[in-house]
Amino acid sequence: MKRLVFLLFTNFIFLASSAQVYKITYKPTRNGQIVGNDPIIVFADSKKSIITRESMLNKAPSRTVEESIVDVAKRIIYKKSTFANGKTVITADSSSFSKNTFQAKDEQKEIVGYKAKKSATSINSNAIDIYYTTSLGIHASPNDIGLDQGLVLEYTRNGNSGLIATNIEQVKAFPSGYSFPNSEMTLDILTYRDEVWKSKFIQIPIFRDEKICFDLDNLKSDSVLRFAEGTVILRKIKVPEVSEDSQAFIELVEKSNGDAYDRTGSVFMIAEDQDLTFLDGMNKGMVTLPKYDVGDGKNYLGMVRTVSFSPIFELMRFFTPFGVSHFNDRLTLKGKTWQDSVTYRQDVSEFLHTMSGKEIYVGTYIGNYDKGGHIVSLELTIHPGNSNYGNHTQALSLFNTTNVMEMGGQTYPTLFGSEKGLVVEFKLKSDIKNARLRYITTGHGGWWNGDEFVPKVNSIFLNDALVFKFTPWRVDCGSYRLYNPVSGNFDSGLSSSDLSRSNWCPGTITYPNYIDLGDLKAGKHKIRVHIPQGAAEGDSQSFWNVSGALLFDKN
User: Fold this and answer.
1) What is the spatial distance between Cα 178 and Cα 325, in angstroms, rounded to a whole number?
2) Domain check: are 258 and 392 in the same one?
3) Same domain for 122 and 217?
4) Where in the numbering of this chain does the Peptide-N-glycosidase F N-terminal domain appear (predicted)?
5) H or E stretch including 355?
6) What is the SS3 string spanning 489-554?
7) Helix, strand, coil proportions of the chain in percent (round to 5)?
8) What is the pLDDT of residues 138-186, one digit of tens each?
């Protein structure tokens, strides 16, 4: 009897250790047709399944790839991501195995020789249909959905895209390197998601909690350069060589550190395509830069391109709100919770060719007269692929009247009060294709009759021909009330931050206009900007901050 029990026991061990392993190949589908390469591969037996890709079985990934190792008995899904640099991170997910409730449907069909039953659910408002079989005694799926139903042979989302099994074969064993991890190897789910997300793109930190204020003591420099009494900060960064179809974003986080007012802000890049740069003026004095003269007795320094000088590229125009964070406790209103900071994020892919593989200077300006000023953090991120307009784009800086060196010698740009206005002449060395002017404009100054609060037409002329005409105006400023805790309140029930303005609101970005200029021939060209600037009101004057970069396709 003991011998029989021993034989039965050893036979059980042999059967358990040699459970049949299946390899299932899934290919993506769209509208019922198989599309794409790099199929999903699933290995599974009665206790375990692995979800991977064919490319992962043959070589190291060139981008972040996520795989799953499923413990069927414990109903745990271990998610494993491998980064392009070879690093791996793992988390344990015990909630996803059966979190979706499926409804059986009275439909069946045959897939790769197996009869499959239909079941349906909804995930994030998407209609999900699966066909599955239980005949192999395994629980597996190409994407963690439907694991508790059986072996998923087909997955469809919203009736038009999905995955379908195209082959099932028996194999001797699982591929190596896919054992269940222990708890010491796993991250919590939030840390895991954060690591995976950050692995997919390039992060270039520029500033971290830097002060921008009016204070001579804020001029002490380390890797961050400070100018104009501390109201401008600048740093050199290295941008790696990236593919032309990548996308670039800048993200700025701002909060008040004592300044209660809405201020003009600018994130800019030093243009270095000519012998004389804006940085020369910052270091040696703005009077060393070319003067633009409209006959009004003022010298507008470093604002317009010449044969030897290029003004700065403006990456982002932003406006601080009234005292966000620092003044949040000054006014409590029923039903309103003030934000603790403002995040401004903008696509700047059109400048990627200018940045790629180079060391560049990037700066931030906030015009203010407060010793506490503002606290900012700035980051550049570059994301691979899928750019729909930045490919091969080259840029030429033409003008920037935003007086970022206000406290360092640049006067307010009241030049549009003259008959001449803004005229820029530039010379192209060769013919260019698909030229367009990246134009940012905001009106400022005056009181109720000033250009900040009065709509004014902006007209753009190329070689004396009108190419674009519009009235820049924002009517959505009230949407940002919760960023403006100390905005002035009026008897009418409105707050200052509610008021419509000339293309800006406290706490927002002003987006560029992209003005089509067509193909341009080599030689001299002229751009003129006309704005009917209002007259001064007592000690308050109207002015316009405009910036323009010529974008064109790389030949």
Assistant:
1) 48
2) yes
3) no
4) 203-382
5) helix 352-355
6) ECCCCCEHHHCCECCCCCCCEECCEEEEEEEECCEEEEEEEECCCCCCECCECCEEEEEEEEEEEC
7) 15, 45, 45
8) 999 999 999 999 999 999 999 999 999 999 999 999 999 899 998 889 9
CA dihedral 302, 308, 311, 315 (to 10 degrees): -170
User: pLDDT (tens digit, 9 = 90+) per residue, 461-470?
Assistant: 999 999 999 9
Which tokens is 155 given? 């997955």
What is the CATH classification number for the domain harbouring 433? 2.60.120.230
DSSP 2: H
CA distances from 503 to 185, 192, 261, 536 (A): 52, 41, 18, 20
Cβ pair 268, 410 in contact under 8 A: no
- Looking only at the bridges linking them, the beta strands covering 509-510 and 523-530 are unpaired
Both structure tokens of 535: 């007259």
Measured in residues, the chain has a length of 555
pTM of the model: 0.89
Model confidence pLDDT, tens digit, residues 104-126: 999 999 999 999 999 999 999 99
How far is residue 392's CA from residue 356's CA, in Å, rounded to a whole number?
11
How would you label 537-546 residue by residue, b for 16+ Cβ within 10 Å and e otherwise? eeeebbbbbb
Last residue within a domain, chosen from 196, 223, 241: 196
